[in-house]
Structure formats: C-alpha cells, structure tokens
Write a structure and sequence with these properties.
- This protein has 411 residues and is of the alpha/beta class.
- It contains 14 helices and 17 strands.
- The chain has helices at residues 64-69, 73-78, 82-86, 98-110, 161-171, 189-213, 236-248, 264-274, 292-300, 310-316, 351-355, 358-367, 370-396, 400-406; strands at 6-12, 19-25, 28-32, 34-38, 60-63, 92-95, 130-131, 137-141, 146-149, 156-159, 175-176, 225-230, 253-256, 284-289, 305-308, 319-321, 329-331.
- The strands form 4 sheets. Strands 4-5-6-11-12-13-14-15 form an 8-stranded parallel barrel, surrounded by 6 helices. A 4-stranded antiparallel sheet has the order 7-8-9-10. A 3-stranded antiparallel sheet has the order 1-2-3.
- Helix 7 packs across helix 8 and helix 13 runs antiparallel to helix 14 (400-406).
- It is globular and about 60 Å long.
- The structure holds zinc ion.
- Residues 344-345, 348, 350, 352-353, 379, 382 line the site of zinc ion (ZN).
- Zinc ion (ZN) binds at residues 344-345, 348, 350, 352-353, 379, 382.
C-alpha cells in the first residue's frame, strides 16, 4: 500500500545519519531535508497560500483539530478538498489533532508545551483525567477515543482513531497522521507507557480504517499516504519500543511526536534513541521544532521533514532571522534600527529585503501595522527555505559538518 506517497534517498552524509532525498506526493515532489510550513487554519499566517511556491515553500501542514471545528471537514470536502479550498496546490500534510486535544487538556493543566520547564515539586497527575483548574474535564479519554469540548463554541466532540481518518480523508491532504495520545513531560513513566501502548493500538485501528477507505474516489484526494507516530516521552526504552512497533506497521512514513522532554538535550537524546530504530527506507517527520540549531540537530540525526512555527511566530513578535546575529536573529523593535537604512539581510532575495529598510519595518512593527506581519513573515520563511536548500546541497557535497560549523551550531 501507500504507493501514493513514496520516498527515495539521494545521498547520505558520511559523518552523520543525515540524508538528502525526494518525497513524492500526489501534489508534487518535496526535496528533503525540508521544513514544512505551519498552516494550522489552511494558511501560513499572514501569507496567501497561492504565492507560497514563489517563496520556495515546498510543503505545508494544516491541523485536523482546528479544521474539524471550523469550518468542518464536510465544508472543505464540498469545496473540493483542502487544496482547492485554500488555493495551495502543493504537497500538504494534516496533523491528527491528538496534540491539540491533549495540549488543551494536560498541557493546559500543566501549563506546558512540547518542550517544557518542569516546575519544581510539581507531581504528574495520577489519573488519565485531564482537568482544568475549575475541575471541569476538558478531555475525557477512553480506549475508544478522546471526548473533548470545542475551543470555538464549547460543543462536545469525539475523536476516535477511525473518525480522525475519515475527517482527514475529507480534508484531502497528501500525508495524514493517525490519532495519538500525547503526553506531557510531567507525566511519569507508567503513565507515558500506558499512553504509548494505547497510541500503538490506535495506530493499528487508524491504519485499518485508512486501508478500508484507500483509493476511494468519493474523497477529494484518493492518493493519500498515512504516517505512523512514535511516542514514548523522554524514556529510552519506550521510544525504542515505539519506534520498533510503529516501524513494523505498514505506514508510508514515520513521525516522531509527543513530549520531546524538558530541554534541548533531552530532545536530542530522544532523536538519538528513536531514529536508528526506524526503517531506513521510509521518510521521517519530526513534529514541531523551534530554533535554527534544532533544525541542524534534527537533520544531522536523520530527520527528513519537520514542521516549524518559528518563522511565523517570531516574525509577528518583530524577530527576524539574520545569519551571524545572536541566535541568528535580530529584533526590529530595538532602538538601534530606528535610522538603519539597510535591509534586514543584504544577502536575502525576499520581497521584504529587496524593498524595505530596517528603519521602515521597525516603524511598521511599533505602529502595529498588519503589513508588518506579512513582510516579516515573508523574510523569515524565505530565510528558512534558503537555509534548507543550503543544507541539502551540503549533504550532497559531503560538507554538512562544515556548514554547521559556519552556522556555529553545536554537534
Ligand atoms: Zn529577506
């Protein structure tokens, strides 16, 4: 199965598990390693979908949870599926919504995200009930699936491994993900193990539902591929077991999800444990990373695609990428740019750098002009697109280590 999505390795880095390759989908080819633009609501924030290819974006990821709640998969399907609906005709993924369901439960309760700080003395919850501070249950979890309240209107919804596949079939992305149970870094070993085992059972059910509906012409995109999701928190034996179990199932690719630990070091360890256990010939996706150095670290550990909200989130806060600056970015709010006539990055070919000065952008940012969000986002997207192209070329030419050193990224 899964001939709808295929992957081939083009070149392997001699010094690390990094590789370059091609991911072929029904809506085009993605050269890897690639970053996947985050288009939660079927749009990268502040940029119109139609023009994304002009900026070099190869693939985007939309969110099943949000699109299910609004406008609803029936509406998207009636309008021809996510490609036709949004005007973006390139490769597209949808996340399963598991992360949103659980981050609005346990994540909200603990006040943590994917990589979180542990609050000293705070104990992980004993039960599987995710409760808000008021005691009102936000997520009710059973073997059957997850019941949750909409963040849009409070209505009650149920996700099962089967219903999520049907929703994603109706949305029509090229690469889809099955329902998983995401744990927080504050969950203990026993809880994380139970959640991982449930995720494996859900993966089998999701795969069965997917195969049943495969190639069904009544859906907007009959040529979808389903990836499996590896869970297991920051525990080595769980990650290894999950990678083995998910890797042995008939998925088109493998995604690494869930809590990646409480620090960057833990995240890297999770990748070190997980990636070597995954099937060599299948594409590997890392769900949700943030920084330039994470991106190098993921690529050098054998990740082929990753989604990254940083270029858009940072841009909206005035933070734009610039190679060689501290953490490779500058904040345009800074007073030192008030009369700076230079573009953000003189070597950048993006629309923003070709037409506007730091001084003008700083002014727009401070004035809260909508155009600032777009201009800053365009630069950050283009920066990441060009960096990924550099990384691919470096892999092909056996000099990834040299490039990483040039970016002062630790190994
Ligand atoms: Zn630029």
């Amino acid at each position: 199965m899964s001939a709808s999505v295929s992957f081939s390795v083009r070149h392997r880095d001699p010094g690390s598990p990094a590789r370059s390759g091609e991911l072929v989908t029904a809506h085009g080819v993605v050269r890897t390693p690639a970053f996947v633009g985050v288009a939660t609501q079927a749009s990268i924030k502040a940029v119109e979908p139609r023009g994304l290819a002009d900026h070099g974006i190869q693939i985007v990821i939309a969110n099943t949870y949000h699109l299910h709640l609004r406008p609803g998969e029936e509406t998207v399907a009636a309008l021809g599926g996510i490609h036709e609906f949004s005007g973006w005709s390139g490769p597209t993924m949808t996340d399963s919504g598991g992360f949103q369901v659980f981050s609005l439960g346990a994540g909200k309760e603990h006040g943590v995200g994917k990589i979180a700080s542990i609050f000293p003395g705070e104990a992980p919850p004993a039960s599987s009930g995710h409760r808000s501070r008021s005691g009102r249950s936000l997520v009710r979890l059973t073997e059957q699936g997850a019941e949750f309240r909409s963040i849009v209107d409070g209505s009650l919804h149920t996700f099962t491994p089967e219903s999520v596949i049907t929703i994603e079939r109706k949305l029509g992305a090229d690469i889809i993900l099955p329902l998983d149970e995401c744990t927080s870094p504050l969950h203990d070993y026993e809880y994380t193990k139970r959640a991982m085992e449930r995720t494996h059972r859900w993966a089998r059910r999701g795969l069965a539902a997917f195969q049943l509906l495969e190639q069904d012409p009544s859906f907007p995109n009959p040529h979808q591929g389903l990836y499996g999701i590896v869970q297991g928190g920051a525990y080595r034996d769980l990650r290894e077991e999950s990678a083995r179990v998910i890797g042995a199932m008939d998925f088109a690719g493998c995604a690494i999800g869930g809590s990646l630990g409480c620090s960057k070091e833990e995240m890297l360890r999770v990748l070190d444990w997980t990636v070597p256990m995954l099937p060599e010939e299948r594409p590997r996706h890392l769900l949700g990373i943030g920084e330039i150095e994470d991106l190098f670290a993921a690529v050098r550990r054998g990740i082929d695609t990753f989604d990254c909200a940083a270029p858009t989130r940072l841009a909206r806060n005035g933070s734009v990428f610039l190679k060689g600056a501290s953490r490779h970015r500058i904040n345009l709010r800074n007073a030192r740019f008030a009369r700076d006539e230079r573009p953000i990055d003189p070597t950048c070919d993006c629309f923003t750098c070709r037409h506007h000065s730091r001084a003008y952008l700083r002014h727009l940012c401070r004035a809260g002009e909508f155009s600032f969000y777009r201009l800053a986002t365009l630069h950050n997207l283009r920066f990441l697109v060009r960096l990924m192209a550099e990384i691919r070329t470096a892999i092909d030419e056996d000099r990834l280590g040299v490039l990483a050193a040039e970016w002062e990224v630790p190994a």
